[in-house]
Amino acid sequence: MSIFGSYMEQFDPVQHLVHGPTVKRNLTHFYTQLQQGEPVEPNRSVLPLTVFASAAAFWGLGQCSSSLFSSSQVAASVAISWLRTAMDVLEHVRRSASASLETVQASIIAIFLIYNIEGLSPKVRALAYSALCTAKDLKLHRTDDPSCMLQAASQAEVVDLEVRRRVWWHLASTDWSLALAGGPHEGTYNVNPKHMRVKRPRNISDEELESKPADFDHPSSEPTIMAYYLQRIRLSEICRDVADLLWAFDADEVSVGDIKATDAKFDVMLTELPMFLRWDEGNRTGYEHIDSKDVHMRLQRYTVHLMTHSRRCKFHLPFLLRASVDAEYAFSREACLRAARTVIQVQRELSREPRSLWIVNSRLCCILHLVFYATVALVMDLSVNRDADSGEARKKEIQEACNTLEGAKQQSAAAGMFLESLMAVMRKHQIKLKNHEGIEIESPAFATGAAEASALAPGFVDVFDGAQMNGEVSNNFEFEEIWQTYIDMDSSMDPQSWDALISDIENIYQGD
Fold it and tell me: How far apart are CA 291 and CA 289, in angstroms?
């Protein structure tokens, strides 16, 4: 149960799709069956396997306090072993058509883990689509459809119904969020909101879920484990709106008015955040007392702001170049850079947290991905708008972001790839940074960093069938060619062209 407790402490606050007390009881029954030599259904074993793999991966990323493993290398090796077994079981369940709600939960947990090991790879996207199909087979998209709605006569049925809502909304919100995450699937999503009948999950704790009536709900102003989850759904709906906007018009038809109207949705969301999820660097008035009672709320707050401001930055990226030739787009440039700077500021605040919270989250690919996008915006603006603002101040911002990637690359080959990609651009445009000793940085030792990452956690670099995150050095030249192709287009770039640039950058990293 120690491993399960670690999962609930470290991962559940940002992917709350299981009911902790129910899973704990099922685990006890699961082990009783094993001890008595009784057969265990495959779909009953796959959720424990993915939960255990996630917890071991947490320790494998460097958090050794109270670890059950002798070293981070051992933890990483065990995590990969459990993950591979879980993937085998998921494939067996798929072929035998014996999927259950636990199968979908396990798939989602596996998706999160694999994404943070190797990035938004084709395997991750395929697994996400498979989980979505399985969820539809189980009619999760019709959870609250009167024609097929499950009864909630007992408290166990109330819990099951609510968990189904959580799982479906997790899949839908992930699908919509990925529409604004770059890569070859940029601007597309699979879940049509008109083709689902599922109530939003309630703002309620797991303990209350076992005792309160089916219609009990807290207002959003009250902190619960669901606080981040509900904001995640809201942000995903904005991402879906952005995707619809960019595809509804030709590139040159997206007006500044449309951009401002869509950007206002981010503003409204941030303004309406409950007090305990608001972020003000250096000022914790209003939520300090909550943090003292619930450390999970700090992680949820950081995650909400990293995700929201990163997506806001990504929304404005297609219009960043236009500001240099069309003053109307100055608003978009300012909004993009403001969001990028906020991502870096929030990440800086996270770096000041206790080691147990910071060291792992600084190495998760999902966090590095957000920092990467923020830094791309700053580098792109400095490359194109050299005379705007203070060049030295902006170089310092970029340097700080690069330092984040530099600090994480020994445990994350993805960080090394992100860093080398950025440095390749800065070398091309003769943007020189200085390290903490005042020495100019010409070129990072990317290949060495990747090798060190492999040595520290070899399983995290090679997950399935030799899939590598740390690419070949020749990718550096390919990256420079891609960047130059698009930057030469300057103001003639349309949103789709800029999306293609970001997609090409990510495809190098993802290995597509």
Answer: 5
